[in-house]
């Protein structure tokens, strides 16, 4: 009890005493909650009664029907506390609070009023009805928002009653008091600093109510504030740039990357939807994103040759429409999926044989769309051909001659060019170049034989074809087209062309005139064969003149029996008969005469026999006689041209005579 309170009670007490003495009543003021038996007041003294009178008068307390808080001790003449007095129970909030009782005396009957004021002591703590105050406040609540708090109750009155509140901590809220008539203090909580659910989604405050007693009593209640989410946070990607790789031709649904964003908001406000933004229309067909988990997958055909990398912009949006974006840089890894492509830039279909060395036949450009080793290309050609492939610079190749080309040996080449890249596995392609070798007149005609001999019967008809020479030329076509030419020379002082001619195209040798063996037995001349090569039309041909070969031809005239033997002896003159006289006694072996004949023909034709014929007639006559020459009685002894008719095989008769020695070799050879 403070000094001031004490002084007031003392003053009050004195005032009651003076009043009660006059009116036969007395008042006391005691604090509530005094212990049983505590002294309330010396009633005997205050009413001016002695203790005997109290006893004799059987003094007692009358309270009506109210509870008996006070008892009278007649021995001591004092009022004592009989039951503990709770002012709050007795009077509630009513002040002043007093007990009214009468002291009744008998003999004689008399009563006195006693008023006992019960003063409040601070025996009640401010208290709250509920155990907890719960609020659900949006984090978007504006500053100055007010939240009514439930007031505390303090049963004490006056100074001991509720005095003020405190709120702790005071980070976000202040208290504001509002005086309401009758009902004491109302208190509100005012938002002074914005709430942020993402920082603190549950706020616990303690509201303390304090009374004015001494010592002060207080009671507290917890305030639970659940901060309600507002979509005040945009999603945020964990990385602003993602790097990823994808192999070209990766199958659909291949995962390229997974992006992730977070949103500190709650519930639907933190639900993120991923989408691909700002891609070119074409690229959009290539990648897809799972809108729920941010997984980026291949949906189209990734072609390294089309693009080596992609930049995908991904957007994350929450349901409140707040967004963030990130980039995915996707590098495409090359796959060896392109064959080298062989382009023929320039091509010779035909090349003359014997070209200058390293003559370019074909130029090739090779392209492989792949990169790195997958695009590195090497080319080769089939082996054992007189060509080689030179690389002039990257991807350009020339097919050049590398060795002799000889049409007569190989008139056509199929050159297969194969180009392969370095990828694993390697891809290759090839082309076949067909190259014709054109003829150059590099081969001279060659006769079948080194020399020819032929014979012809004399007395031939002029123009007779005697025989044919033939030359061959390994070249082709015009270069092998043969012309036969008779070379000028003379035979026995006459030009050979007056003896023979040759058909230029076929090589047939003709007699120009009838030959006479007896005049010329053989002759030799040269025949030249010349091919049809022409002056060059192109420099490649090298300017070959026509080539020729020559051969000697010997023509032998064959004898014909075109000359009859001539009897030189015995000399015949006119039609006269040469007579030889043979004596009758001529014995066998008698030499009759010598016959000498000649035949200008040669060989067999030159061979002749002598024959004795019986008549002047021919063999026919002879046959008529029925006696062939051999049975002639005169035989001939053949010895060269000087043949003697000498032998008589039989006996001569008178009538035997021989008028002629005839040439009759056709019978007797
Ligand atoms: C070249 O190829 C052609 C066509 O396939 C064929 O007719 C010809 O015989 C080949 N030539 C050579 C020399 O292989
Ligand atoms: C003909 O052939 C001979 C011997 O082979 C040769 O000496 C001569 O030069 C040749 N004549 C011509 C015109 O080719």
TrEMBL record:
> What Pfam family does this protein match (any one)?
Cadherin
The record describes its membrane topology as: Single-pass type I membrane protein
Q: Kindly list the places in or outside the cell where this protein is found, as annotated in its UniProt entry.
A: Cell membrane
Keywords on record: Calcium, Cell adhesion, Cell membrane, Glycoprotein, Membrane, Repeat, Signal, Transmembrane, Transmembrane helix
- Does the UniProt entry include the keyword Glycoprotein? yes
Q: Name one GO molecular function term.
A: calcium ion binding
Biological process terms from the Gene Ontology for this record are:
anatomical structure morphogenesis; homophilic cell adhesion via plasma membrane adhesion molecules
What is this protein's function per UniProt?
Answer: Potential calcium-dependent cell-adhesion protein. May be involved in the establishment and maintenance of specific neuronal connections in the brain.
- This one is known as Cadherin domain-containing protein
